[in-house]
């Protein structure tokens, strides 16, 4: 990582795709404005300048925000690889190129996840020795302050068993940085705790993972919200289903609880508003807006993927994670973790 | 199905493994006693007679319960196929044989799921044309009265795409019976709603499912608790992870809600007990004890699998499902559904 001589050069620069996400560009630009207020960071804001200007106070970027002009936009439903090939002047591709070319040390996107991944992979390349990247996401324990890191949640749906071993190494190293755990434990998501459980992929991966530091064996779906291990490794298909199942459960069950709290004429009716506020506060750490987003591990740069419905607050959290990943020297540490095991 | 000439012969007979489950035999026997009180059913209670006698009033089975003597017990952690081979006089194997030999029309077990499946498969055989069985479980919508039927949740972890098509047919026919839906819709659990999404298995299955009646395309993990389709088809590995993720989320989030309700000195403290009772009532339909258990579809008989920690109430619900599956002529209807599509 380049470290300049002046103070300004030491401030991490994060390239932010202003056009990605269901609420782009308004919420993304608002997030950028808040991020440079709250964090010691510079933001390269990528998008069509005339569009961005409409969302900036006075039509001009404030200090520590610079515009990264891009004439095209990758849509949420664009086919990922095709979009990256076709839209070379898109805000998303320009963000990945800014990291590749050293104008930024990290990128953040809340748009098309597949395209964000493809842009990062194609423009930054992979860390030496890594076969395929994986998306890692922190899963918070309800009511607790622990979290586990689940990967892959969607980058690579048909992995070889060896790739799961690399993801265990990457996830373990990143858990040290992101979760602040000295020696993270690693579990393999399976359909039973016993060593023999699993489909063909799990059985082959389990045999290989035996030699991975911190590996403790199989974990089950019900362990995901309990953080029985610090890292949970799985293929991108299963991880995506599990993560979205958790999201759906949070939504469905909170709806049920609120309908009970709101029952007309209930004994607790006078306290219903206070109770709802308190419940929302208790559930806040579980909401995607507050988890800081996912990270693409295995590419040769920092790429933070915020969820599609990101608010300005979600963007601030994602920029914070990107910034902290830069200052921790994450890419070099991940490269070392993979090289050391090879 | 044999139908006798007297009224007694028309009462469905359910073989119940009294020795299977974390709370066996006490809760299972209690469940049998309650079942024959509440339902128009006979129970063949399988286990060592001297053990069962200790849990029966006066040491004798009451009317409509008969003992099915068995000297061995399959343990929760026994290797499934090996246990069935080795323990030929186990209560579990005797239940499956009772169905095979026509002494019962259905079996219910709350023990080792793999062994229950193996016993049913090896003793009853498969429905003609079915390649592999699948375990189907109803997933309730929180606060709603709808449910979806998820399969497979653990019988077959490495299916061929063609088997998923058979499970769609079996699941759809069983949803008509169990959920009372005239024309059930079917979704394929995947990592995105778009048709192109999925791993290799999903892409191949999706192409084949196009011709299956009721198939509407991909669904995601977050759809599981919303019943966006009546039937959700997946492989046994992913289904098991998703189901246990749901269970873990229910447990983790209810713990969080109760800790808020129980906060000392809270504005709602005086109503905390009433509120908790009401919340428990609202969540009751979601608890495994109350869903009636899973069913093994594709074997040539009715095999209901109740969860490992089944209470007496769970056993009554499982016996009810077994009984209703018998009276609906489920096996014949499933056979017809598969044959009709072949």
Summarize the structure in words.
2 copies of one chain form a homodimer. In chain A, helix 1 (26-38) packs across helix 10 and helix 6 packs across helix 7 (200-209). Helices cover 42% and strands 15% of the residues of chain A. Residues 1-8 of chain A have low confidence and may be disordered. Chain A contains 11 helices and 11 strands. Chain A has 342 residues and is α/β, with parallel strands linked by helices. Chain A has 2 domains: 1-130 and 298-329, Isopropylmalate Dehydrogenase; 132-291, 3-Layer(aba) Sandwich (Isopropylmalate Dehydrogenase), CATH 3.40.718.10. The longest helix of chain A has 26 residues, at 236-261.
């Amino acid at each position: 990582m380049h470290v300049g001589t002046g103070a300004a050069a030491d401030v991490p620069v994060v390239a932010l795709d202003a056009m990605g996400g269901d609420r782009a560009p308004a919420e993304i630009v608002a997030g950028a404005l808040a991020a440079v207020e709250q964090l010691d960071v510079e933001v390269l804001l990528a998008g069509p300048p005339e569009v961005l200007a409409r969302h900036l106070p006075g039509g001009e970027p404030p200090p520590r925000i610079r515009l990264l002009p891009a004439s095209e936009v990758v849509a949420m439903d664009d086919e990922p690889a095709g979009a990256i090939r076709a839209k070379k002047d898109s805000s998303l591709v320009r963000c990945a190129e800014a990291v590749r070319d050293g104008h930024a040390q990290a990128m953040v996107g809340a748009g098309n996840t597949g395209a964000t991944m493809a842009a990062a992979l194609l423009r930054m390349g992979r860390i030496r020795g890594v076969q395929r990247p994986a998306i890692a996401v922190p899963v918070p324990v309800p009511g607790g302050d622990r979290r586990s890191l689940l990967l892959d949640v969607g980058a690579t749906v048909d992995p070889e068993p060896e790739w799961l071993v690399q993801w265990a190494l990457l996830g373990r190293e990143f858990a040290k940085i992101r979760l602040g755990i000295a020696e993270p434990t690693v579990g393999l998501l399976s359909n039973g705790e016993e060593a023999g459980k699993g489909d063909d992929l799990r059985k082959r991966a389990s045999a290989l993972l035996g030699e991975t530091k911190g590996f403790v064996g199989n974990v089950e779906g019900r362990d995901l919200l309990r953080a029985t291990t610090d890292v949970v490794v799985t293929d991108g298909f299963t991880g995506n289903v599990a993560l979205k199942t958790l999201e759906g459960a949070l939504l469905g069950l909170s709806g049920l609880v609120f309908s009970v709290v709101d029952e007309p004429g209930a004994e607790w009716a006078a306290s219903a508003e206070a109770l709802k506020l308190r419940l929302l506060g208790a559930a806040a750490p579980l909401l995607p807006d507050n988890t800081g987003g996912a990270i693409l591990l295995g590419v040769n740069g920092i790429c933070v993927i915020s969820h599609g419905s990101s608010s300005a607050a979600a963007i601030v959290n994602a920029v914070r994670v990107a910034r902290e990943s830069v200052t921790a020297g994450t890419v070099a540490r991940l490269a070392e973790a993979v090289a050391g095991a090879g």
